[in-house]
Amino acid sequence: MDASQYKDYVLFMLFIKYISDKYADSDDFAPPVVIPKGASFADMVALKGKSDIGDKINTQIIQPLIDANARLARSDFPDFNDPNKLGEGSAMVERLSNLVSIFQKPELDFSENRAEHDDILGDAYEFLMRHFAQDSGKSKGQFYTPSEVSRVIAKVIGISPENTKAATTAYDPTCGSGSLLLKVAAEAGNKITLEGQEKDVTTAGLARMNMILHDFPTANILSGNTLAAPKFKDGEGLRTYDYVVANPPFSDKTWSTGLTPEDDLYQRFGWGVPPAKQGDYAYLLHIVRSMKANGKAACILPHGVLFRGNAEAVIRQQLVRSGILKGIIGLPANLFYGTGIPACILVLDKENAAARKGVFMIDAAKGYIKDGNKNRLREQDIHKIVDTFTRQIDSPRYARMVPFTEIADAKNDFNLNLPRYIDSSEPEDLQDIDAHLNGGIPERDIDAFAADWQQMPGLRAALFESAGRPGYARLKLPVGEIKAAILGHGEFIAFTDKVNALFGKWCEAITPRLTGFGQNDHPKALIGTVSETLLAAFQASPLLDPYDVYQHLMDYWAETMQDDAYLIAADGWVAKPARIVETDKKGKQKDKGWACDLIPKPYLVARYFASEQATLDARQAELEAIAGQIAELEEEHRGEDAVFAGFDKINAAHVKERVKEIGNDPEAKDELAVLKQWLKLSEKESKLKKAVKELDAQLDQLAHDHYAKLSVAEIKTLVVDDKWLARLAVDLQGELDRVGQTLTARIRELAERYATPLPQLVDEVGALSARVEEHLKSMGAAWN
I need a surface site. Which of 134, 273, 710, 726 has the fewest CB within 10 A? Predict the structure, then answer.
């Protein structure tokens, strides 16, 4: 099946398994989801192998669920008896039985969700939806807004646990699978009322299931066309909300279907009617109308809304003049499923609109990482956008507060295209004609490292001296010595010491939080604290971008540390090795050794068995050296008529056989010497292999047995100091190296660029030309 189809079956199976495990035997008087008798996942398991399994899932599982839960609809669920998708007869039976078996696995037991506050199930659900969106093709990815963008929106609208309560309302008029609403709810601390409308009935069903899996069963998700037939109304007018968020379909060409904008019942188009083939402002005007008098909102729209003319220019002018437009955040291209065009977030705020003096703009188009065939915002990109927008502080080539007077002047005329106000381009690397003619490095280029020289003024003096004329300098040392001079300079060493001291102080402060984390604690709360304190600590770091340091932590969290935290939250500070057993297709099991996820073997060995490891490494190095000598000997004597020329395979048996053939033949003494040398090396190699194998087995057993002897304090030291903080220290060293490498590379580039002035080049060309001419004459060549 296409991903856009099988997602419906897979996500339903996850849904039915989760609600059955969590609520089927619940003692709750009014569980959020009612599981009728005979309609649980266990009842679905009983249908495996039956000829009418598809029909029974429809009639005995899905329909009773719908009848018992008013918020669920038949359109929410796929047809399990569709032969066009599932095959006919035994093919359907086998396919559905196998599907049920997958979700029957013991590890998918959600009855005791040990980390439910961290929403493992909801995260898994969104993970699946993200990948389904990615695999579903260009027109099928509309049901999912990338979670990174959703998080930005949820944060920039200013929602928080401190300013929300159960009566606080949030609304998404084009809610898709509900991920954007759920990010708002998470930011609010889950004390909030959620409502959303979605045009596609199947996607609306996804949203309802998504809400239940995220423990938001009371969220009200309705199906229908928001613009033509809005479902959320108070009387005859649109219902208004504290917060509105949306990711409408870009440039919807059918937005006015079923609607007469000039006679709109809800008075949404007072600022003007959007173009018939461009529906972006139609959704934006619906959002504005759906905001309370002090409401906040954010909407994702294509960049075209910032600069397109005609009717949209009229609406844009009214939007700016109203003061409701608080900010614009330009995003990288190719973030969204279904389109590669760049988009922006328009942040709206009716509170204090009359007093607003400008629009805060951020151009974040360059902050992303490649992720397959899409781009994705990194953790540092999200944090930087949110921090910058929240503080409303100008940042060169990234963000600034643009006054209304500048937006409205004759030059701009309410065009909001970000490059008009923020020049985010990299400074041009200018060639200096005077330096090319007369030599020397332009001091203008050296001054570009002002931050470096401010931290290390003596380093500049150690590297450069005057070139004999104003505005130009030259290196005091050869180009090849630049790196060593920088890294070895006292001021550079002092800079690295200062950064390392900063990191050491942070480690000392954060260690009690890390070691204090324990069973039933919440990993997301842990990383929230750890990451924010690291970012705050490195605000004082010279020459390093604190967001780069923060990204290293977040990458390591996603790669390893998060799994460790969930293990500790589930089982406490326990480190037990487990056997690794692989089962082949025939069911035969093979022991592949052992492993410990929390404390992998290398960490334990490094702390407790370093001498044994050193002995093993020394033997391994000897073995590799002998293997190299053997390979070299074979290569040297492998040519035609050489010692090993007639060997199909060079091994001890064949070599000994050849030695026996030679016997005492005096004419073959050189060949015999080579063969005996090979045998001697081979014997030594065999002994070393045996020794290495024995030492490795001994060390493996020592390490395995030592886990049982570890105290909780020792486990914490191994995990926190040797594993977590040691990895971050390595990453930090990489950032320090980058500072030195960047400075070295640029100085080397400038030195080489202007090393040979033009007059010298002309002289060299003349000398070379003369030499060529002499050679040609000596060969008898002549021309007029």
Answer: 726
